[in-house]
Queue: 2 jobs
Job 1
Amino acid sequence: MLLNIPNVLTPEQVVEARKLLDAAEWVDGKVTAGYQSARTKDNQQIPDGHPAARQVGEMIVKALGQNPLFLSAALPLQVFPPLFNRYSGGQSFGTHVDNAIRQVPGTPHRIRTDLSATLFFAGAEEYDGGELCVEDAYGVKIVKLPPGHMVLYPATSLHHVKPVTRGVRLCSFFWIQSMVRDDGRRSILFDLDLAIQRLSRDHPEHPSAVQLTGVYHNLLRQWTEM
């Protein structure tokens, strides 16, 4: 399931974040790439632990914790501290798949990367190219979103970033370990949750709302890993 999540950050938060990110130090993006990814990765990143990365990362994680669409779709158990990259001057990232396990910097903890997320900070009019292309069973999905919007997709997906031929593409990227490992099961729960919400909104007294809510939670009990 690939899902666009609008307005994760407000316009004011985007402006604040960009000021911090623009003033930060940037290094070669290969510092966080695995062996195969390093061969095709050409971008810049803010180093782990940089104050700007921590501050904007905390802003993102807090916003996600208050976003009903993200919580329903991801069923997050852990969110990897957000990282930040930028592309310019023809830089790109070739086709790759994200590492299955990530060590949380500065800790002994690891997370399983069930979902990948990219949150955009630069508007589409600010740069040419730079589309995120995600492959699934139905073809290639092309993603280029407004500032403050985010795309969520299975970390098992092959994906790449097209060359940026004008301007600067600025994004945050990170991973989520879900309480429900399987993408198909997460999709079922997400669809069921949305249906329950619509039924409760349109027919608040309908007894099926309670029955379907029970089905949702019983499936969640069976499929959750904590």
Job 2
Amino acid sequence: MQQLLLDLSQPPPPTLGNFAVGGNAELLNVLRAWLSGTLHERCIYIWGVSGCGKTHILRALVRSTHEVGRTAVYAQPNEVEALEALTDVPALVGVDDVGRWSGQEHAALFRIGQRATETDTLLLVSADAAPAALALRDDLRTRFASGLTFQVHLLSDDEKAHALAHHAAQRGFQLAPEVAQYLLHRRQRDLPSLIQVLDALDQHSLRTQRPITLALLREVLQPEDAVPRQS
């Protein structure tokens, strides 16, 4: 039981492979085209509500860029100074939650964008709203609008259930519908967290030689789900 809870405390690293596509197929195709070198784009702007997977996408593309032997950096608010201080502009600059950046940080980001245009760097930017709805400098909004813009769509419960069943099949077992539905009504309903639970549950099932049932799931998640929900 302690090992299972330890497994649940360490989420898997975000990759493009463990991002459930849902209604975001066009965006994933564009990102993979950039990775393969068949798309030359200077700016891609993604936006959507909290929990839709924007940070997952940014971190996954940074990871994938490293895997193909190119440099990439990920930046959140308050990290722009370190980003601007880089001697060499990387192949990918992933800028997260740009709507929370200050005016001074936006100015620095514009300068970074200017350098990026000289080095064929991709600026991948995320926010919770489209560029026109954010308080941005006009020159920065123009830069974002000149590239590709995608809304990142939340997965429906049916899409999550399908993704969980597919993941279970890849691990060699069939996910009962009642187990999937129980998972979908947990505190953490984002797909990476749900898959993390499924993986840990599968490992626990193998260790204890017990089948994956709703009773087993309730048993092993009881300590974690006893934590009060955040309002």
